[in-house]
Design a protein that fits this description.
single chain; 218 residues; Alpha-D-Glucose-1,6-Bisphosphate, Chain A, domain 4; seven-stranded antiparallel sheet; 7 helices; elongated
Length: 218
C-alpha cells in the first residue's frame, strides 16, 4: 500500500499539485481496489420496497387459481409475519410491506476484504408482498431486498473527493443536524430469492390448510 502511495504522490508533488489532491487520488484508488467504492454512492437506499413496479423478473410469484384476493391477502400477511414486522397492509392495492430486519453476516458480499478477513457486515432484509387478481384467481408476488450498511465507507469516500482546503459544503451536505438513522447509507445487494420462495410456500400452505414449513431465516 505504501509503495503504491509513493509511486503516485511523488510525481504529482514534482508537478506542484496540492498534497491534499494527492491523498484524495490515493484513497480513491485504494477504495476502488478494495471493493469499497461500490457502496459509496450518495443515494441512500430506501427502507421500503417500491411496489409500483412488479415485473416478474424482479419478484418471485405464485399463481393461485380459484382463490380470492381477500383470502390470499390474509395469507400473505400471516406469511410475512413469520419473518418480519409488518408495517403496512393495504387490501385495496393488495400491498403488504415490512420493516427492515437487521442481522450480521460474516463476509460473502463480494468485497475483497470480506473474502480476505471474513469481515462482519451489518445487513438487513426488507420484504413486500403484492396480491393481484387474475381471471378466476390471483397472483401473489414476493420480494425480499437485502442491503449492507456502508455508512463508514460512504463517509471516507466522500471526504476524499473534496480536493480543496476550503470547507464549502452546506451543513446538510456535511450531514450535520440529522439523526443517526438518516445518516445511515445502505447498499443494495442481490435479493434473497430463497426466502421469497419460503414466504410464498407459507402463503400456499396457509390457504390449503396443510402443514407450514418452518421459517429458516430471521
Amino acid at each position: 500500500m505504501s509503495l503504491l502511495a509513493n509511486r503516485i504522490s511523488f510525481p504529482c508533488a514534482r508537478r506542484g499539485q496540492h498534497p491534499r489532491m494527492n491523498r484524495a487520488i490515493i484513497c480513491t484508488l485504494v477504495l476502488a481496489l478494495g471493493g469499497l467504492a461500490a457502496g459509496c454512492s450518495d443515494a441512500r437506499s430506501s427502507d421500503r420496497i417500491d411496489t409500483r413496479r412488479t415485473a416478474t423478473g424482479d419478484w418471485t410469484q405464485v399463481r393461485l387459481p380459484n382463490t380470492s384476493s381477500e383470502a390470499a391477502f390474509d395469507a400473505g400477511v400471516y406469511a410475512m409475519q413469520q419473518w418480519f414486522r409488518v408495517t403496512e397492509t393495504d387490501p385495496q392495492r393488495g400491498v403488504i410491506q415490512s420493516a427492515p430486519s437487521e442481522y450480521e453476516q460474516k463476509g460473502g458480499t463480494g468485497r475483497i476484504r470480506d473474502a480476505a478477513i471474513g469481515f462482519r457486515n451489518r445487513m438487513r432484509r426488507i420484504g413486500a408482498i403484492v396480491v393481484q387478481e387474475v381471471g378466476d384467481g390471483c397472483i401473489v408476488k414476493c420480494k425480499v431486498a437485502v442491503q449492507r450498511l456502508d455508512t463508514a465507507d460512504h463517509r471516507a469516500f466522500r471526504s476524499n473527493q473534496q480536493f480543496g482546503d476550503v470547507p464549502n459544503e452546506t451543513p446538510i451536505q456535511q450531514e450535520a443536524g440529522v439523526s443517526p438513522q438518516q445518516e445511515q447509507v445502505w447498499t443494495d445487494m442481490p435479493r434473497d430469492r430463497a426466502l421469497e420462495r419460503q414466504v410464498l410456500d407459507v402463503v400456499q400452505n396457509r390457504l390449503e390448510g396443510s402443514a407450514e414449513p418452518k421459517p429458516t431465516a430471521k
